Amino acid sequence: MDKTNVHEVRRLLHYRELIPRLEEALGKFSRRDSAEVLQPVRSSVPLHKHRGFMLSMPTYMENSGVLSTKLVCFYNREEGSSLPAVQASVLLMDPEYGNVKAVMDGEVITCMRTAAVSAISTKLLMRPEAEVLAILGTGKQALSHYTVFTEMFSFKEVRVWSRSGQGLQRFCQSVSGPVTPCVSVEEAVRGADAIATVTRSTEPVLFGRWVKPGAHVAAVGACRPDWRELDDALMREAVVYVDSREGAMSESGDVILSGAEMFAELGDVVNGTKPAHREKTTVFKSLGMGVQDAVSAQLVYDKWTAQASKQ
Ligand SMILES: NC(=O)C1=CN([C@@H]2O[C@H](COP(=O)(O)OP(=O)(O)OC[C@H]3O[C@@H](n4cnc5c(N)ncnc54)[C@H](O)[C@@H]3O)[C@@H](O)[C@H]2O)C=CC1
Ligand SMILES: O=C([O-])C1=[NH+]CCC1
Q: Which SUPFAM superfamilies does the record cross-reference, listed alphabetically (predicted)?
């Protein structure tokens, strides 16, 4: 991917503009009004030789005139591999003519929209008196989650854990605010009010017995039907919210293998059709949706064309 494109997307995309658009898009998606959002469950092609998957994520928003698809490859790389875990491109098309209007880098979009949606779940489901955030993992998603969570909330402490000491050190050096490095998951999450799991693990790393009652967990990794980040106890005890019921039923190992009940989509809470159980332990199981990429890419495109027309 052309680096100028990556920098351009990073320059144009800001959480303060992105978050309200994503919140609105989640609400539209959960209304299942096909003129608002048409988003089939994404298709996935295994890349066995390379321990990866390619996802194709088409989305049409008829009322908004947005037609897009994201192509994203993600990999279960060996620890220490210098190859990226996620690579993506987003295509924006004209729905009337079918021509491609823009092809843009999808890596920044994926990092930012995923973290922004976790921040929305946390805003809606975390207890108001929350003080401690724990982040499990120290990769790209961990960084975007740190950025948006510290921008949006005033945590007294942000704890971070990685299974790699080097990764933990790199993370602590690269963030601009305070952070407490932790040597174990238990140390990081005991007493935490909000927990973001952003690892490439395929086995549970977060166990219910360590989680403070009433905490909110934004679970971002484990995007395959046989991959886990959370254990059965946590999934069964918590009130579980998802981005898409259909998506979670086909892709989330944490949902499918635990047999946990999905209480609501996040969009249902945005729409006020399902309650936000802030008083209980809550899990938001994030898998990522095409509509999140569509509104992010449209925002980049609108800002880019507005700036270009002034020059
Ligand atoms: N829900 C969503 O919308 C999205 C989810 N993802 C998923 O989020 C996760 C993180 O993505 P990135 O930050 O881009 O990856 P990354 O490769 O930059 O970071 C992964 C982190 O997980 C850690 N890790 C790897 N294997 C582990 C294991 N077995 N146990 C514990 N930690 C382990 C690494 O040390 C690193 O800190 C991936 O699973 C990815 O597929 C990525 C994009 C969107
Ligand atoms: O929505 C997304 O872009 C992804 N979900 C899992 C890996 C990438």
A: NAD(P)-binding Rossmann-fold domains
